[in-house]
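Quick start: what a row looks like.
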Amino acid sequence: MTEQDHESSDTGDTGGTAHSSAPPERSTGQPSDHGAPVSTGTGTTHDTPGVPDSAIPELVIISGMSGAGRSTAAKCLEDLGWFVVDNLPPALIPTMVELGARSQGNVARIAVVVDVRGRRFFDNLRDSLADLESKHVTRRIVFLESSDDALVRRFESVRRPHPLQGDGRIVDGIDAERELLRELRGDADLVIDTSSLNVHELRAKMDAQFAGEEEPELRATVMSFGFKYGLPVDADLVVDMRFLPNPHWVPELRPFTGLNEEVSNYVFSQPGAKEFLDRYTELLQLIAAGYRREGKRYVTIAVGCTGGKHRSVATSEKLAARLASQGVETVVVHRDMGRE
């Protein structure tokens, strides 16, 4: 992922701060140190009285290099309806599965984010995985990988040390972590290299793996911006509204923005404005269908004009209303409005 994407949405990977949902209420039963034996319904009997095999939750363990996107991957699963726990001690993973099994179907899918910061921690994780396997719990391991160069840039961009670097350099911490994680990486069911991925691309990869057979819902962010302030780095699609006359040169409209009715009416009274909106909306329907087929759930549509105040704002509002009327969950952001 790019440094910007990492800094804005994935700094939890570098800081080691837990951001988790509260675990489900502890059962009144007395589980063993590693939880009661359970199964996934494959015919193996578990030892948890009153808990059917079908109640055993799915389990995904998210791990990988610090700074490679663990927090983003976890957030994606949370958006898909998974119960996500960040930085759960590995020894508690089997107990977490048991509690999910006792939740009467309220916790059907569990994702646990773990990081490896010491040999003892890794040994606990290995023991927990062996315990789950002995109880026939199906688990998947997602490992987030990234190149050394990308990780160094990300840690430097957030100005935080690598959790394992100690008194050394960032690269020393990366080397130490990579060595500790070598065995876990080899056991991973899914390895995602985020070196050149942004947040949206990582989410798309996670969606493609975990969204299930149902067609994923598409969510759109429509962002107005000014070309003189630069293109949005996270834009999937860019629209240039500078082919329309600029209300800035109309004295009575200059103080207003595209949120004002006077400006909006002026913009869409220009030749080609309404036709463009109609045809671009049709094009987005085609694109949205393709995004859904590819498992992409998020799209950012950037709508630009010179200063991001009049034409782009008015068009963004109209476009967002069209998308919302078609059932697309839509958010409007006016990045540069007010900067002049």
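That is the whole record. The first strand starts at residue 58 and ends at 64. The first helix runs from residue 3 to 9.
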